[in-house]
Amino acid sequence: MRVRDALKAAIENGTYGPGDSIPSEADLCATHGVARMTARRAIRELRTAGLVYTEWGKGSFVVDRSTEGEHQGDV
What we know:
Blueprint: H1 2-12, H2 25-32, H3 36-48, E1 52-55, E2 59-62
Antiparallel strand pairs: 1-2
């Protein structure tokens, strides 16, 4: 999935660092020309992979690997 892969690459190359917020679903839809469900799935897959965590009502943020485990209960 290109949205997931683009976000993963941006996290890995440092565009988004630990604690940084990633673009919202609406922003991802506009940038990549995809449906909201596609953007939501990309974020969910990054969350499942342990790359981001979501604070409902605030957004999704890059996991700080130095404090790994701190956000494991977030969904």
